[in-house]
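Student: Please help interpret what follows.
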Amino acid sequence: MSSQEQGQVRSLNALSRRRALLTGLGCLLPGSAMAHHAPKQTRTGKGLHILTFSGKIAETQGKVLFKPYEQLTHQTIVPHGWNGQITDLQHFTGLTHFPLAAAMMEASSLRIGCNLKLLSRHQADNSASNCGQPSAAIDYAMAWDRARFDTAPGWSDFWDVARHPGRRSLRRDPRLTLEIALLADGVPASALYHVLATPEGVDHAFLKLEQLRPYIAWWSTPEEAGHILTSGGALMGCVPTGEILGAAGPDRQRFGLLWQQRFLVQYGWGVMTAAANNPAALAFVSWLEQAVQQQAFANAWPSLPSMAELNALAPHLGHIPPAIAVDDTFWAANLGKLSERFQQWMHHT
Protein backbone atom coordinates (compact mmCIF):
# COMPACT_ATOMS: atom_id res chain seq x y z
CA MET A 1 0.00 0.00 0.00
CA SER A 2 1.32 3.45 -0.88
CA SER A 3 1.87 6.12 1.75
CA GLN A 4 -1.00 8.12 0.24
CA GLU A 5 -3.41 5.19 0.61
CA GLN A 6 -2.18 4.57 4.16
CA GLY A 7 -2.88 8.21 4.94
CA GLN A 8 -6.39 7.89 3.55
CA VAL A 9 -7.02 4.87 5.73
CA ARG A 10 -5.80 6.68 8.84
CA SER A 11 -7.63 9.91 8.11
CA LEU A 12 -10.92 8.48 6.89
CA ASN A 13 -11.03 5.39 9.17
CA ALA A 14 -12.61 3.26 6.50
CA LEU A 15 -12.14 -0.14 4.90
CA SER A 16 -11.26 -0.45 1.20
CA ARG A 17 -13.34 -1.47 -1.77
CA ARG A 18 -13.75 -1.31 -5.54
CA ARG A 19 -16.65 -0.42 -7.80
CA ALA A 20 -18.64 -2.33 -10.46
CA LEU A 21 -19.55 -1.49 -14.02
CA LEU A 22 -22.05 -3.56 -15.96
CA THR A 23 -23.82 -3.16 -19.25
CA GLY A 24 -27.28 -2.07 -18.18
CA LEU A 25 -30.81 -2.39 -19.38
CA GLY A 26 -31.12 -0.43 -22.61
CA CYS A 27 -34.86 0.07 -22.39
CA LEU A 28 -36.88 3.23 -22.89
CA LEU A 29 -39.33 3.91 -20.13
CA PRO A 30 -43.06 4.42 -20.65
CA GLY A 31 -44.43 7.84 -19.86
CA SER A 32 -46.69 6.37 -17.19
CA ALA A 33 -43.56 5.44 -15.23
CA MET A 34 -43.07 9.07 -14.24
CA ALA A 35 -45.67 8.91 -11.47
CA HIS A 36 -44.96 10.38 -8.02
CA HIS A 37 -42.73 8.21 -5.87
CA ALA A 38 -41.82 9.13 -2.30
CA PRO A 39 -38.70 7.52 -0.80
CA LYS A 40 -39.58 4.45 1.23
CA GLN A 41 -38.74 4.48 4.90
CA THR A 42 -38.97 0.74 5.52
CA ARG A 43 -36.14 -0.88 7.45
CA THR A 44 -36.92 -4.42 6.38
CA GLY A 45 -34.42 -6.54 4.49
CA LYS A 46 -36.59 -6.78 1.37
CA GLY A 47 -35.82 -4.84 -1.78
CA LEU A 48 -32.67 -3.19 -3.09
CA HIS A 49 -31.41 -0.90 -0.33
CA ILE A 50 -29.46 2.17 -1.40
CA LEU A 51 -28.05 5.37 0.11
CA THR A 52 -28.97 8.76 -1.33
CA PHE A 53 -29.61 12.31 -0.08
CA SER A 54 -32.88 12.97 1.72
CA GLY A 55 -35.11 15.86 0.76
CA LYS A 56 -35.63 17.26 -2.71
CA ILE A 57 -32.87 15.15 -4.29
CA ALA A 58 -34.47 11.89 -3.15
CA GLU A 59 -37.93 13.18 -4.08
CA THR A 60 -36.74 13.97 -7.60
CA GLN A 61 -34.96 10.64 -7.94
CA GLY A 62 -38.05 8.85 -6.72
CA LYS A 63 -40.19 10.37 -9.44
CA VAL A 64 -37.88 10.09 -12.44
CA LEU A 65 -35.51 7.23 -11.53
CA PHE A 66 -36.61 4.85 -8.77
CA LYS A 67 -40.30 4.49 -9.63
CA PRO A 68 -39.61 3.98 -13.35
CA TYR A 69 -36.98 1.36 -12.55
CA GLU A 70 -39.38 -0.48 -10.27
CA GLN A 71 -42.04 -0.53 -12.95
CA LEU A 72 -39.52 -1.66 -15.55
CA THR A 73 -37.90 -4.46 -13.53
CA HIS A 74 -40.34 -5.21 -10.64
CA GLN A 75 -37.35 -4.67 -8.35
CA THR A 76 -38.24 -2.67 -5.21
CA ILE A 77 -35.87 0.24 -4.47
CA VAL A 78 -35.53 1.18 -0.79
CA PRO A 79 -33.69 4.54 -0.33
CA HIS A 80 -32.04 5.56 2.95
CA GLY A 81 -30.76 9.08 3.62
CA TRP A 82 -27.13 9.75 4.48
CA ASN A 83 -24.58 12.58 4.50
CA GLY A 84 -22.24 11.31 1.75
CA GLN A 85 -19.21 10.92 4.04
CA ILE A 86 -16.83 8.04 3.39
CA THR A 87 -16.40 7.52 7.12
CA ASP A 88 -20.12 6.80 7.49
CA LEU A 89 -20.00 3.92 5.01
CA GLN A 90 -18.47 1.75 7.74
CA HIS A 91 -21.63 2.15 9.80
CA PHE A 92 -23.93 1.27 6.93
CA THR A 93 -21.86 -1.66 5.70
CA GLY A 94 -22.03 -3.13 9.20
CA LEU A 95 -25.83 -3.29 9.18
CA THR A 96 -27.22 -6.78 8.66
CA HIS A 97 -30.97 -6.09 8.63
CA PHE A 98 -30.75 -4.28 5.30
CA PRO A 99 -27.57 -5.04 3.33
CA LEU A 100 -26.72 -2.10 1.09
CA ALA A 101 -26.43 -2.42 -2.68
CA ALA A 102 -25.26 1.04 -3.77
CA ALA A 103 -24.68 4.60 -2.62
CA MET A 104 -24.82 8.05 -4.24
CA MET A 105 -21.80 10.23 -3.43
CA GLU A 106 -19.47 12.86 -4.85
CA ALA A 107 -17.11 11.76 -7.60
CA SER A 108 -14.09 12.36 -5.35
CA SER A 109 -15.62 10.09 -2.71
CA LEU A 110 -16.16 7.39 -5.33
CA ARG A 111 -12.45 7.37 -6.10
CA ILE A 112 -11.49 7.28 -2.44
CA GLY A 113 -14.04 4.56 -1.74
CA CYS A 114 -12.47 2.47 -4.48
CA ASN A 115 -8.95 2.96 -3.12
CA LEU A 116 -10.13 1.99 0.36
CA LYS A 117 -12.02 -1.02 -1.00
CA LEU A 118 -15.34 0.15 0.39
CA LEU A 119 -16.67 0.14 -3.16
CA SER A 120 -16.37 -2.50 -5.83
CA ARG A 121 -15.15 -2.19 -9.41
CA HIS A 122 -15.68 -4.74 -12.17
CA GLN A 123 -12.56 -6.77 -12.86
CA ALA A 124 -12.60 -5.70 -16.50
CA ASP A 125 -12.20 -2.05 -15.44
CA ASN A 126 -8.45 -1.51 -15.13
CA SER A 127 -8.42 2.30 -14.94
CA ALA A 128 -7.01 3.94 -11.84
CA SER A 129 -9.87 6.37 -11.24
CA ASN A 130 -12.96 4.83 -12.85
CA CYS A 131 -14.77 3.83 -9.67
CA GLY A 132 -18.14 4.97 -10.89
CA GLN A 133 -19.36 7.23 -13.63
CA PRO A 134 -20.59 10.72 -12.69
CA SER A 135 -24.31 10.61 -13.35
CA ALA A 136 -25.66 13.79 -11.74
CA ALA A 137 -24.36 17.37 -11.58
CA ILE A 138 -25.62 19.67 -8.81
CA ASP A 139 -24.93 23.39 -8.56
CA TYR A 140 -24.12 25.04 -5.22
CA ALA A 141 -24.35 28.79 -4.80
CA MET A 142 -24.66 31.50 -2.20
CA ALA A 143 -28.26 32.29 -1.30
CA TRP A 144 -29.31 35.30 0.72
CA ASP A 145 -32.46 36.74 2.23
CA ARG A 146 -33.61 39.48 -0.16
CA ALA A 147 -35.32 41.41 2.63
CA ARG A 148 -31.95 42.01 4.29
CA PHE A 149 -29.97 43.28 1.29
CA ASP A 150 -30.38 46.35 -0.92
CA THR A 151 -27.97 44.97 -3.53
CA ALA A 152 -26.89 41.43 -4.36
CA PRO A 153 -23.90 40.37 -2.20
CA GLY A 154 -20.80 38.45 -3.25
CA TRP A 155 -18.58 36.05 -1.34
CA SER A 156 -16.56 38.93 0.13
CA ASP A 157 -19.82 40.28 1.63
CA PHE A 158 -20.37 36.84 3.14
CA TRP A 159 -17.49 37.66 5.50
CA ASP A 160 -18.64 41.24 6.23
CA VAL A 161 -20.48 40.68 9.49
CA ALA A 162 -20.20 44.36 10.41
CA ARG A 163 -22.35 45.51 7.48
CA HIS A 164 -24.48 42.36 7.35
CA PRO A 165 -24.81 40.93 10.87
CA GLY A 166 -26.20 37.43 11.19
CA ARG A 167 -25.39 33.76 10.79
CA ARG A 168 -23.86 32.27 7.63
CA SER A 169 -24.23 28.61 6.65
CA LEU A 170 -21.38 26.53 5.24
CA ARG A 171 -20.73 22.86 4.65
CA ARG A 172 -19.16 20.83 7.45
CA ASP A 173 -16.54 19.52 5.02
CA PRO A 174 -13.38 21.02 3.51
CA ARG A 175 -14.84 20.54 0.00
CA LEU A 176 -16.59 23.73 -1.17
CA THR A 177 -15.81 25.40 2.17
CA LEU A 178 -12.09 25.99 1.54
CA GLU A 179 -12.75 27.09 -2.03
CA ILE A 180 -15.33 29.62 -0.82
CA ALA A 181 -12.91 31.01 1.79
CA LEU A 182 -10.32 31.64 -0.91
CA LEU A 183 -12.86 33.23 -3.28
CA ALA A 184 -13.94 35.54 -0.47
CA ASP A 185 -10.33 36.64 -0.04
CA GLY A 186 -9.92 37.49 -3.70
CA VAL A 187 -8.33 34.33 -5.13
CA PRO A 188 -9.47 33.93 -8.77
CA ALA A 189 -11.60 30.89 -9.52
CA SER A 190 -9.02 29.67 -12.02
CA ALA A 191 -6.33 29.59 -9.30
CA LEU A 192 -8.27 27.93 -6.46
CA TYR A 193 -6.70 24.48 -6.71
CA HIS A 194 -3.22 25.80 -7.47
CA VAL A 195 -3.44 27.71 -4.20
CA LEU A 196 -4.93 24.82 -2.21
CA ALA A 197 -2.17 22.54 -3.47
CA THR A 198 0.37 24.48 -1.38
CA PRO A 199 0.76 24.54 2.43
CA GLU A 200 0.61 28.34 2.29
CA GLY A 201 -2.64 28.21 0.35
CA VAL A 202 -4.24 25.86 2.86
CA ASP A 203 -3.12 28.15 5.69
CA HIS A 204 -4.62 31.05 3.75
CA ALA A 205 -8.01 29.34 3.53
CA PHE A 206 -8.11 28.36 7.21
CA LEU A 207 -7.09 31.84 8.34
CA LYS A 208 -9.97 33.24 6.33
CA LEU A 209 -12.39 30.73 7.84
CA GLU A 210 -11.18 31.64 11.31
CA GLN A 211 -12.47 35.20 10.78
CA LEU A 212 -16.00 33.86 10.33
CA ARG A 213 -15.95 30.99 12.84
CA PRO A 214 -18.40 32.45 15.46
CA TYR A 215 -21.02 33.19 12.80
CA ILE A 216 -21.13 29.88 10.93
CA ALA A 217 -24.12 27.53 11.00
CA TRP A 218 -22.81 24.22 9.70
CA TRP A 219 -24.72 21.77 7.49
CA SER A 220 -23.93 18.21 6.47
CA THR A 221 -26.51 17.37 3.80
CA PRO A 222 -28.10 19.26 0.87
CA GLU A 223 -31.47 19.08 2.62
CA GLU A 224 -30.02 20.58 5.79
CA ALA A 225 -28.42 23.40 3.80
CA GLY A 226 -31.81 24.38 2.44
CA HIS A 227 -33.58 24.01 5.77
CA ILE A 228 -31.14 26.30 7.62
CA LEU A 229 -31.95 29.11 5.22
CA THR A 230 -35.70 28.62 4.83
CA SER A 231 -36.15 28.25 8.61
CA GLY A 232 -34.32 31.52 9.26
CA GLY A 233 -31.27 29.85 10.76
CA ALA A 234 -28.91 31.96 8.64
CA LEU A 235 -28.94 35.25 6.78
CA MET A 236 -27.03 33.76 3.85
CA GLY A 237 -25.37 30.49 3.00
CA CYS A 238 -23.96 27.98 0.55
CA VAL A 239 -26.79 25.78 -0.72
CA PRO A 240 -27.68 23.56 -3.67
CA THR A 241 -29.51 25.88 -6.05
CA GLY A 242 -32.23 23.26 -6.48
CA GLU A 243 -33.13 23.53 -2.79
CA ILE A 244 -34.08 27.17 -3.40
CA LEU A 245 -35.43 26.93 -6.96
CA GLY A 246 -37.50 23.90 -5.99
CA ALA A 247 -38.90 25.50 -2.83
CA ALA A 248 -42.51 26.56 -2.40
CA GLY A 249 -43.47 29.96 -3.85
CA PRO A 250 -42.75 32.24 -0.86
CA ASP A 251 -39.35 30.72 -0.11
CA ARG A 252 -38.37 30.70 -3.77
CA GLN A 253 -39.06 34.41 -4.05
CA ARG A 254 -37.53 35.16 -0.68
CA PHE A 255 -33.95 34.22 -1.60
CA GLY A 256 -31.52 35.52 -4.17
CA LEU A 257 -28.76 33.33 -5.65
CA LEU A 258 -25.22 34.29 -6.66
CA TRP A 259 -24.91 32.86 -10.17
CA GLN A 260 -21.51 34.41 -10.97
CA GLN A 261 -19.44 32.28 -8.58
CA ARG A 262 -21.37 29.09 -8.01
CA PHE A 263 -19.88 25.59 -7.95
CA LEU A 264 -20.65 22.46 -9.94
CA VAL A 265 -20.36 19.19 -8.00
CA GLN A 266 -20.43 15.82 -9.79
CA TYR A 267 -22.14 12.85 -8.15
CA GLY A 268 -22.18 9.17 -9.04
CA TRP A 269 -23.25 5.78 -7.74
CA GLY A 270 -20.94 3.22 -6.20
CA VAL A 271 -21.67 -0.47 -5.67
CA MET A 272 -20.89 -1.75 -2.19
CA THR A 273 -18.18 -4.38 -1.95
CA ALA A 274 -20.60 -6.86 -0.39
CA ALA A 275 -22.89 -6.40 -3.42
CA ALA A 276 -20.15 -6.82 -6.03
CA ASN A 277 -21.62 -10.16 -7.12
CA ASN A 278 -25.25 -9.08 -6.81
CA PRO A 279 -26.67 -8.84 -10.37
CA ALA A 280 -29.56 -6.65 -9.16
CA ALA A 281 -27.18 -4.06 -7.66
CA LEU A 282 -24.94 -4.04 -10.73
CA ALA A 283 -27.85 -3.71 -13.13
CA PHE A 284 -29.41 -0.86 -11.12
CA VAL A 285 -26.21 1.22 -11.02
CA SER A 286 -25.49 0.53 -14.69
CA TRP A 287 -28.99 1.72 -15.55
CA LEU A 288 -28.56 4.92 -13.50
CA GLU A 289 -25.34 5.69 -15.39
CA GLN A 290 -27.03 5.58 -18.80
CA ALA A 291 -27.40 8.91 -20.60
CA VAL A 292 -31.21 8.64 -20.68
CA GLN A 293 -31.41 8.46 -16.88
CA GLN A 294 -28.81 11.19 -16.41
CA GLN A 295 -30.86 13.48 -18.64
CA ALA A 296 -34.07 12.58 -16.82
CA PHE A 297 -32.60 13.73 -13.51
CA ALA A 298 -31.04 16.84 -15.07
CA ASN A 299 -34.42 17.82 -16.55
CA ALA A 300 -36.25 17.31 -13.25
CA TRP A 301 -33.70 18.80 -10.82
CA PRO A 302 -33.93 22.63 -10.85
CA SER A 303 -30.25 23.62 -10.83
CA LEU A 304 -30.74 26.72 -13.00
CA PRO A 305 -33.64 29.12 -13.52
CA SER A 306 -35.21 29.68 -16.89
CA MET A 307 -33.91 32.69 -18.83
CA ALA A 308 -37.18 34.49 -18.13
CA GLU A 309 -36.76 33.88 -14.40
CA LEU A 310 -33.11 34.93 -14.54
CA ASN A 311 -33.94 38.17 -16.30
CA ALA A 312 -36.56 38.90 -13.64
CA LEU A 313 -34.21 38.01 -10.79
CA ALA A 314 -31.00 39.58 -12.13
CA PRO A 315 -31.57 41.49 -15.37
CA HIS A 316 -28.03 42.89 -15.36
CA LEU A 317 -26.53 39.44 -15.93
CA GLY A 318 -27.99 38.82 -19.37
CA HIS A 319 -26.79 35.20 -19.27
CA ILE A 320 -25.89 32.53 -16.74
CA PRO A 321 -22.10 32.36 -16.34
CA PRO A 322 -20.45 28.94 -16.18
CA ALA A 323 -20.03 27.32 -12.77
CA ILE A 324 -16.70 26.61 -11.09
CA ALA A 325 -16.15 22.86 -11.44
CA VAL A 326 -15.06 21.23 -8.19
CA ASP A 327 -11.78 19.41 -8.92
CA ASP A 328 -12.46 15.76 -8.08
CA THR A 329 -8.90 14.72 -8.89
CA PHE A 330 -7.57 17.22 -6.35
CA TRP A 331 -10.00 16.13 -3.66
CA ALA A 332 -9.52 12.42 -4.27
CA ALA A 333 -5.81 12.95 -3.57
CA ASN A 334 -6.13 15.45 -0.71
CA LEU A 335 -9.42 14.89 1.10
CA GLY A 336 -7.87 12.67 3.78
CA LYS A 337 -5.28 15.13 5.04
CA LEU A 338 -7.48 18.20 4.58
CA SER A 339 -10.40 16.52 6.36
CA GLU A 340 -8.09 15.75 9.27
CA ARG A 341 -6.98 19.37 9.49
CA PHE A 342 -10.56 20.58 9.05
CA GLN A 343 -11.77 18.45 11.97
CA GLN A 344 -8.91 19.66 14.14
CA TRP A 345 -9.81 23.24 13.26
CA MET A 346 -13.51 22.62 13.93
CA HIS A 347 -12.81 21.31 17.43
CA HIS A 348 -10.19 23.92 18.33
CA THR A 349 -11.53 26.76 20.45
